Amino acid sequence: MGGRDVAHESATIRDDGRPVGIVVAMDAELRHLLEQLDVDREERDGIWLDRHAAVAGVPLVVVRSGMGMVNAAAATERLIGRHAPRAVLNFGCSGAHRRDVLPGDVVIGERSVNHSAVHILPDGSELYKGVAYEVGGETMSPSDLPSDPGLVALAHAAAADWAPDPWPREAGWPDGVPYRTPVIHAGAVASADIWTQAHARLDLLHGRHGTLCEDMEAAAIAQVCALHGVPFLPVKDISNNEFHAATDIDGAFAAFPTAEVGKRAAALLLRVIPALAALAPVAAGGTPASGRPEAGIA
């Protein structure tokens, strides 16, 4: 995961005094971050609760969105409008799109894909565009969005000498799969208000998008951030692999590993955030305090 020029690629996210926003879907995920933070203050704004904290001098605004694409988009739009963050981060649990991506693994999200943005054609086949396109002079936003390259580079650097906590066997390690320690992956995260369990559909999604996992928020956050030009990065950890064991959706998720979800993704982000403090701050006029002009993104 080495070899990336972090200083060059991170020009868009240099310190300009604004906070970094963090959007998390579930309390079960968020607690793994909050347990490592000293929250300075909380602010209630209607349905939203902002938690203000700092890591290594980097100011943070943390908000729980609730699960799903609409909730995630609404929380992100309000976060950007209220706090104008210099970057937005998202972490949480996800389900694997490959048989070898196993519980406890971590995915650095290099792209976010809304996999439900499909057209159902007359013959029943699906057409996925991914890119922006026009309909009667109106533009449909792209549904396959790259993460900010600077944030991706920082995540790779933070992961280079780090190992996620092992996944507890009793938390649902798949039967028949040799136990191993978690692996860090990098690639695309799929999102939709859909929990995919059918093996053929999982294979189709991975083949179509190259996705490693799926959640219900990242692509919605990515789209709102793209509309506002705000750098974005999702980091996910794997809670379930439906190829090996089907989650008991009809049984109210009785065996879902709630205590583990988001734990490893939060741990990696807590290594990324201090690196944001190490970037040269931006002086008036958009020039780093070093006096060198901003580099372009590779």
> Which CATH architecture is right?
3-Layer(aba) Sandwich
Low-confidence stretches: 6-10, 283-298
Name the overall outline: globular
Span between termini: 17 Å
How are helices and strands ordered from N to C?
HEHEEEHEEEEEEEHEHEHEHEE
Strand order of the largest sheet: 5-13-12-6-14
Structural class, judged by helices and strands? Answer: alpha/beta
Percentage of helical residues?
A: 25-40%
Describe this protein's structure.
The protein has 298 residues and is α/β, with parallel strands linked by helices. Helix 2 packs across helix 7. The chain has a single domain, classed as 3-Layer(aba) Sandwich (Rossmann fold), CATH 3.40.50. It is globular and about 50 Å long. A hairpin with a 2-residue loop joins strand 9 and strand 10. 26% of the residues lie in helices and 29% in strands. The C terminus is likely disordered.
Annotate the secondary structure layout.
Elements (H helix, E strand, L loop, with lengths): L5 H4 L10 E5 L2 H8 L6 E5 L2 E8 L2 E7 L4 H15 L3 E10 L9 E9 L3 E3 L5 E3 L4 E3 L2 E3 L3 E3 L2 H11 L24 E8 L7 H11 L1 E5 L2 H11 L3 E9 L22 H16 L3 E2 L3 E2 L10
Parallel strand pairs: 1-4, 1-5, 5-14, 6-12, 12-13
Antiparallel strand pairs: 2-3, 3-4, 5-13, 6-11, 6-14, 7-8, 9-10, 15-16
